[in-house]
Amino acid sequence: MVSAPAKRDIRKLSPEELKAFFVEKGDKAFRAQQVYEWLWKKSAKSFDEMTNLSVTTRQMLNEHFVINHVHVDNMQRSSDGTIKNAVKLHDGLIVESVLIPTEKRITACVSSQVGCSLDCKFCATARLKRMRNLNADEIYDQVVAIKEQSELFFGRPLTNIVFMGMGEPLLNYANVIEAIDKITSPKGLNMAAKRITVSTVGIAKMIRKMADDEVKFNLAVSLHDAINETRSAIMPINDTNPLEDLADALRYWYKKRKRKVTYEYVVWKGINDTPEHAQALLKFCQVIPSKVNLIEYNPIDEGQFQQAGDDVLQMYQHLLESHGITTRIRKSRGKDIDAACGQLANKSL
User: Fold this and answer.
1) For the chain, which has fewer Cβ within 10 Å, the N-terminal or C-terminal residue?
2) Are residues 109 and 130 both part of a single domain?
3) Is 341 considered catalytic here?
4) Catalytic-role residue among 116, 120, 285, 341
5) 216 and 151: one domain?
6) pTM (2 decimals)?
7) Closest-CA residue to 198 (of 220, 177, 178)
């Protein structure tokens, strides 16, 4: 007995490939444009939703293709309004995404990988190890889910997207770029690229590639220390991408893109809470125009990483601002549901 051929994931097809399919089946070429709009502009989860197609055409699509959309498997709401989603992928794996509401904006924090391979010592996701990269449509679907939640629970549109969830976006570069293309395209969600920030631990060669590709979104770097010895101890990626290489890549970025970078920085007790570390950060901030987010840390266990006191954060902020570096102390959101900085995948996976 010959088994039926496996159905193809329709969202992996280009508009040209969709057009070729319809022509091959003796249908009108413009059907491809209609389907593409349903997939990427209207975010259809099934072919039955494509109501401007005939029943026969929808049946034909069902016979040949699948839409591997994600499902919000579990949703938790924080006392501060933050929503954390456990998102189930078509193969049963789980990633997490977060809706972060403030008075002026609603931000989607999305994941780019299932787990992570970089072993940052302070991050819960690193304990999962990397299982696979997310496809472009799986990244896009996280944004769509949060967009729908924003409208349902807050009556407001999604305004911003940050790639600060599980995984290192620049190690899944092609899919991240494709997802952003779909999110920003007038034929997709039509969001402004300036409202999107991609955060990296600082992979120098990929920052250079972003500059060469003339990306229009914003760049953030999870820095957390500007002394090589300390940074390597907490972020092993620094062994192969030391601060000197990162600085060179950022100079290249600024030369090509003329865009400042945001440094994400957590201050921990006994690790980077001295004036020496603050001075090192100040020096690094002067490599290219930059701003700093001093982020409140949320312990993932009873281990070595504990948030420094407010006096230390204020010491950092005063030093940086006195030298013209815009600095904000970011209070974490969603701590009560493990949705805050460093906590993703702490308990739900």
Assistant:
1) N
2) yes
3) yes
4) 341
5) yes
6) 0.92
7) 220
